[in-house]
Specification:
CATH topology: Jelly Rolls
Largest sheet: 7 strands, antiparallel
Shape: globular
Strand order of the largest sheet: 1-22-19-24-17-14-13
CATH class: Mainly Beta
Number of strands: 26
């Protein structure tokens, strides 16, 4: 018998400022939810024209960016550049060090660019790997409809109801599903045993769990599941006014210490100090940072 995962906690992600004029709702990486390996941070960002995330470093983690509205340009010191649009994702492995800029598109109507960014820890043995980028376009993402078409699932990474994602996207194994449930719809989604998992509600209200465990959450809430159990149950009542839309993410916990200083994530205090010195001295992965400035970030310099 499949065992439905119990809910450890559910909480609202509070909006805060980040970067240059951007607004984010951060749920993972706050006092509400720390030490949730392999996840370091989850931001639901809304960036209006004229704001963004100009040139900044990363080391020791991977970032997954998912665009929900608008578009985001990126550029790094290796020469990678590109744009991700609605429904596209970008996977960046910082490895031993990268400098990049992420700038929202200037939408003619002044509308904000909205998306999710998840930071995933790298296994200790891969902390010094070469940085890399992969983009996943919306058109490449497999999807499936279940429960007589009342549930639509995009399989960004992982598997759902017999459908596999295109490819492994991160060095650390992560499943990422985008699930939308119409009123009256319900779904049981299997997850790998022992992985940490959460659901973040993008819009509408969704009820998670079964029996006495049932918890209904609204927009901007993060629902954190217990590790025990092999599936997550979600439904939207038949009398709901709108669809429930959420991302369901699971990842393999890493048995290692997390020492984080801003964008540098390592496994000891000494390594963090060393990485800060590397960044300042342009050594050990940050050689290309010397004198580098992104073209897209220059729009922020007044």
């Amino acid at each position: 018998m499949a065992v439905s995962r119990a809910i450890r906690k559910a909480f609202l992600a509070i909006e805060q400022s980040e970067g240059a004029g951007a607004r984010v709702r951060r749920s993972i990486g706050t006092p509400q939810l720390r030490n949730f390996s392999p996840f370091l941070m989850l931001d639901h960002f809304s960036v209006k024209p004229g704001a963004g995330f100009p040139d900044h470093p990363h080391s020791g983690q991977e970032t997954i960016t998912y665009v929900l509205e608008g578009a985001v340009d990126h550029e790094d010191f290796v020469g990678n550049k590109g744009t991700i649009e609605v429904g596209d994702l970008q996977f960046m492995t910082a490895g031993k060090g990268i400098m990049h800029a992420e700038m929202p598109r200037q939408n003619p109507d002044g509308s904000p660019n909205v998306g999710m960014q998840l930071w995933v820890d790298l296994p200790e043995k891969l902390k010094k790997c070469e940085p890399r980028y992969r983009d996943l376009k919306a058109s490449e993402i497999p999807n499936i409809d279940v429960d007589d078409g009342k549930v639509h699932i995009k399989i960004i990474s992982g598997q759902s109801h017999g459908v596999d994602s295109v490819q492994e996207l991160a060095y650390t194994p992560v499943w990422w599903l985008d699930i939308e449930i119409k009123p009256g719809g319900k779904v049981k989604q299997s997850l790998p045993d022992g992985w940490n998992a959460f659901a973040y509600t993008l819009s509408g209200s969704t009820t998670f769990g079964e029996g006495a465990e049932k918890t209904t959450v609204g927009q901007y809430h993060n629902v954190v599941f217990e590790q025990k159990g092999d599936e997550v149950y979600a439904e939207v009542p038949a009398d709901a006014k709108e669809n429930g839309h959420f991302i369901l993410v699971a990842g393999l916990p890493l048995d290692q210490k997390v020492v984080q200083y801003g964008p540098f994530v390592l496994t000891s205090q000494e390594e963090v100090y060393q990485k800060i010195m590397d960044y300042q001295a342009h050594t050990n992965g940050f050689e290309r940072a010397r004198g580098w400035r992104s073209e897209i970030g220059k729009s922020m310099v007044h």
